[in-house]
Design a protein that fits this description.
The structure is a single chain. With 185 residues, the chain is an alpha+beta fold. The protein has a single domain, classed as NADH Oxidase (3-Layer(aba) Sandwich), CATH 3.40.109. Helices cover 32% and strands 18% of the residues. The chain has six helices and six strands. The strands form two sheets. The protein has a four-stranded antiparallel sheet, sandwiched between helices. The chain has a two-stranded antiparallel sheet with strand order 1-6. α2 packs antiparallel against α4. The protein is globular and about 60 Å long. The structure holds flavin mononucleotide. Flavin mononucleotide binds next to β4.
């Protein structure tokens, strides 16, 4: 059972999904957006409650206003479109879990279609309220992120203080049969 990377694995396109923060100005065709929305719609959710609604944001002025909410998401102004996720009646922990699954589908789907994606979190209650105002989302609904989609121009993080790239080693993450147990039987 090899733990090393197998570039021929059908899982390879998923393994490579990463956060894109620099986009080419090429528009994203309606057909691509439609496929992503369909993929998102079929995400599993707690009790199949499907607590999400989507706003496809194409309007540059609105995107610029959202980008200005805080510096770590300033890059989103350069993406051609975003899909804002709105949660309706989502219970706290379940809602967060469902939203994570949904987001990963959008990022993975965009990558598999030859595009890329990046999530931008508005930043907390004050910024969430402002983003809701910019997008006309009713106050009683939850909105905390927009997933940007476009052709990647670079995979680099343009921000001066972004997190480290790469991942922890498998040996650091996995144990067998009990906490800390080794692989050898
Ligand atoms: C809950 C959550 C919030 C995030 N918020 C932001 C954000 O506001 N701005 C940003 O540029 N990236 C954000 N990210 C992206 C992470 O920085 C990214 O997934 C992580 O650094 C791994 O990136 P990589 O897959 O490209 O290596 C967020 C990711 C998650 C899961």
């Amino acid at each position: 059972m090899p733990h090393s990377r197998d570039r021929s694995s059908p899982l390879e396109p998923i393994r490579r999904v990463s956060q894109i923060r620099q986009y080419s100005p090429d528009p994203v065709p309606d057909d691509i957006v439609g496929q992503l929305l369909e993929l998102a719609r079929w995400t599993g959710s707690a009790k199949n409650s499907q607590p999400w609604r989507f706003i496809v944001v194409r309007d540059k002025e609105r995107l610029k206003k959202i980008a200005a909410l805080r510096p770590p998401i300033g890059w989103l102004a350069g993406a051609p479109i975003g899909i804002a996720i709105v949660l309706e009646g989502a219970e706290g922990m379940f809602g967060a879990y469902d939203e994570g699954r949904l987001t990963e589908r959008l990022l993975t789907g965009a990558t598999m279609l030859g595009y890329g994606g990046g999530t931008a979190w508005f930043g907390g209650p004050a910024q969430d309220a402002e983003a809701k105002r910019i997008l006309g989302i009713p106050n009683d609904l939850t909105a905390r992120q927009i997933v940007m989609i476009g052709r990647p121009a670079s995979r680099k993080d343009p921000r001066p203080t972004g997190p480290m790239r790469g991942r922890k080693a498998i040996s650091e993450l996995v144990s067998y049969d009990r906490w800390g147990g080794s692989r050898a039987k």
